[in-house]
């Protein structure tokens, strides 16, 4: 099955919530408003993992540092201090270095995940079909990992 | 030359001697309220050791291995690993986030990583002493340069 589709193809309600948030003017802020929905938060975490791995696996790890600087500057956030190190730690935590993010509070981790996932919609942005495919993949990961053992 | 004016050989400062002791694992990495001059010497010594151990384009995995090994040996110091990695990459000239690292953490990382790097480089006593002396001399030069008021910029070419 090819990874294409439309907004309507998204199987789950959380998936639609995420795609709607990504279509709004401030995607990161819109995503952060989903904090009260545990299913949406779970899907957002998986989407973060999928997006980060597809972007950075196999590339020079130093690209993460440059990406974080660019992301935070775009978000008008300080890009040379603690926040940047935390963002790099959260990204690298899903690239095989989970220990880097151990000390980061859940709230801050969620905020940084919203920045990174929201960045998928930064102009020119990921094409809608690709975005839907990423959400599908995140949904599929949740379904696969939550399946009870046979 | 009269012997009275002969230069004194060896490490000159308490900060330098402390560095040597840390490298020999003979002193804690958290010194009691070090002076800013001492921190300066440690920062410079750390930079010298980092550049002797790594190239600017050394693989990140190699730098990471040094950080992990060093911090594991000194787990009680509880230094943040990513900040430690960034300090090494900063010393190699990379543009990395090293703001908002407190003095205590920064100096602790400088001392600890200095000891780890010296260990990895398998420096002899003499080489370690030379490295510390070089750091002391560079620190004196830098402090002297900071004390001199900056010269006015030359006029722009027509």
3D architecture notes:
The complex is a heterodimer of chains A (150) and B (158). Helix content of chain A is 61%, strand content 0%. Chain A is built from seven helices and no strands. Chain A has helices at residues 13-22, 27-32, 38-56, 62-74, 82-93, 106-118, 128-145. Chain B has one domain. The N and C termini of chain B lie far apart (50 Å). The model of chain B has no long low-confidence stretch (mean pLDDT 87). Classes of the chains: A mainly alpha (150), B mainly alpha (158).
Q: What's the helix-strand series of chain A?
A: HHHHHHH
Number of helices of chain A: 7
* Unreliable stretches covering 5 or more consecutive residues of chain A: 1-6
Tell me the distance between the termini of chain B: 50 Å
Shape of chain B: globular
Strand residue content of chain A: under 5%
Entry keywords:
heterodimer, A: mainly alpha, 61% helix, B: 158 residues, mainly alpha, 60% helix, 0% strand, globular
Short description:
Chain A has 150 residues and is mainly alpha-helical. Chain A contains seven helices and no strands.
List the helices and strands and how they pair.
The complex is a heterodimer of chains A (150) and B (158).
Chain A: H1 13-22, H2 27-32, H3 38-56, H4 62-74, H5 82-93, H6 106-118, H7 128-145
Chain B: H1 14-23, H2 36-53, H3 60-73, H4 81-91, H5 103-121, H6 125-147
